[in-house]
Specification:
It is a single chain. By secondary structure, this protein is an alpha+beta fold. It has two domains: 141 residues, 60s Ribosomal Protein L30, Chain: A (2-Layer Sandwich), CATH 3.30.1330; 261 residues, 2-methylcitrate dehydratase PrpD (Orthogonal Bundle). It has a six-stranded mixed beta sheet. The chain has a two-stranded antiparallel sheet with strand order 1-8. Helix 1 runs antiparallel to helix 6. The radius of gyration is 21 Å and the shape is globular.
């Protein structure tokens, strides 16, 4: 496979539209599959999920539920979903009747939740028990990867190595991108097809609508409005970095509060997609940079994020939005402003030297504050690299190449921060839900 083929396949596979936070969606997908296999009205729905999935699903708002959240609610909504082909947009167009049926299921204590303390990463198992039969579904490794389907104890679909999610198409393309020479991926950018370029541009337009919703007081924190007020009062400069932070934080706030608009994800996360697309589009608009160059920068940022997700895992103790998408963003900014491979390497190392190790304590409206850090650090790292500032590769965990640095960051996440992840979960699990 050529670098161009690897790049385009990776972009098509690891960038997808989703409605709502992708972790509750993954739970809803598993519940939907299990319910359909049970073949009747579900009497009990058992949900068993990994520590990381619990952490990222417990606090985020679910679209169409008037600000409600919760793992049990996500599972119950999935169980009652009318979608003919369940995908990452499963939780779109929730009406009051659908919501009422799901809430009644929870009130009747028909949803049973269990956290698998021994399992990390992305993994959820749902068992739906109805009078007519039992359905079992496992999603593992990536948000849409159906690893096992079982009806009345008979396996009707099983992916090899489903416990580790090794057969997931998403994980395969991430691995291919990580194994490709990074310089060859950069060289392939101008050769991208018009179809892929349009797909990336569509993601920008999609995510800008979510930012506009956030600026229109669509989020719990209303952080976007606060930024706008601070700019108007002269407390913050109306520069490209501040505008990028305003749009990104507003969009994340809206999404984590349950905004029902569809977003274009990156590396399995809508917040990561927002972190990449919005700042790059702001920069391209301010500097009047051609759309062709913007789509190439978007491709590089997304590919870098996918590579880092390969090394860290889909979910880990490390904040994927700051560390993975933030690092992808700094690579994209460097490229967008004319940087070569050396400059991009310096920018990635500048970023890695500053933000590596920032924890993930679950998806929530507070992610909008973390993303301010990511956008600010990404722009600063790229701007410094473009002006000759480059951290020595002898510093800390940095590598001599982009690939080496990304691998090292991954090692910090897993196995390095597994113990940290357990402590984060213990703190969160002891809070009243």
């Amino acid at each position: 496979m050529t670098a161009l083929e690897c790049l385009e396949e990776g972009l098509r596979t690891d960038i997808k539209a989703a409605t709502g936070c992708t972790e509750p969606v993954a739970i809803a997908l598993a519940a939907s599959h299990a319910t359909r296999l049970a073949g009747g009205e579900v009497e009990t729905l058992e949900v068993r999920l990994s520590t990381n999935l619990f952490k990222n699903a417990v606090e985020v708002g679910i679209p169409g539920t008037h600000g409600a959240h919760g793992i049990e609610l996500a599972a119950a909504l999935g169980s009652h979903s009318p979608a003919p082909q369940p995908d990452l947009t499963l939780l779109s167009s929730i009406d009051d009747g659908w919501l009422a049926r799901a809430q009644a299921m929870i009130l009747a204590r028909r949803v049973v939740l269990q956290i698998d303390q021994a399992r990390h990463g992305l993994h959820v198992e749902c068992v739906a028990r109805a009078r007519g039969g039992t359905g079992r579904a496992i999603i593992s490794g990536s948000h849409e990867h159906v690893a096992l389907l079982e009806r009345n104890g008979t396996v009707i679909h099983e992916a090899p190595d489903h416990d580790a999610g090794k057969s997931s198409k998403v994980l395969e393309v991430r691995r291919s991108l990580a194994e490709a020479p990074f310089g060859e991926l950069v060289e392939a950018l101008p050769q991208m097809s018009d179809e892929v370029r349009q797909y990336l541009q569509d993601g920008v337009e999609m995510n800008r609508k979510v930012a506009e919703a956030g600026l229109g007081n669509g989020g719990l924190l209303k952080i976007g409005s606060a930024y706008r007020t601070l700019i108007q009062k002269g407390w913050l400069a109306n520069d490209v970095i501040t505008r990028a932070k305003m749009l990104t934080s507003a969009a994340v706030d809206a999404r984590m509060s349950g905004c029902d608009l569809t977003v274009m994800t990156s590396g399995g996360s809508g917040n990561q997609g927002l972190t990449i697309t919005l700042p790059l589009s702001v920069l391209a608009t301010v500097r009047n940079i051609a759309e062709s160059r913007l789509t190439e920068a978007l491709a590089l940022a997304n590919a870098t994020t996918s590579i880092l997700k390969h090394h860290t895992g889909t979910l880990s103790a490390m904040c994927g939005c700051v560390v993975c998408a933030g690092t992808g963003l700094t690579a994209g900014v460097s490229y967008l402003l004319g940087g070569d491979l050396g400059t991009i390497t310096a920018a990635v190392n500048n970023m890695a030297g500053g933000i590596t190790g920032i924890i993930c304590d679950g998806a929530k409206v507070g992610c909008s504050v973390k993303l301010v850090t990511a956008v600010d650090a990404a722009f600063q790292s790229a701007f410094m690299a473009l002006h000759g500032v480059s951290l020595p590769s002898s510093n800390g965990v940095l590598g001599a190449t982009v690939g080496e640095s990304l691998r090292n960051i991954g090692l910090i996440a897993a196995p390095g921060m597994v113990g940290t992840d357990a402590q984060i979960l213990a703190i969160m699990a002891n809070k009243p839900l």
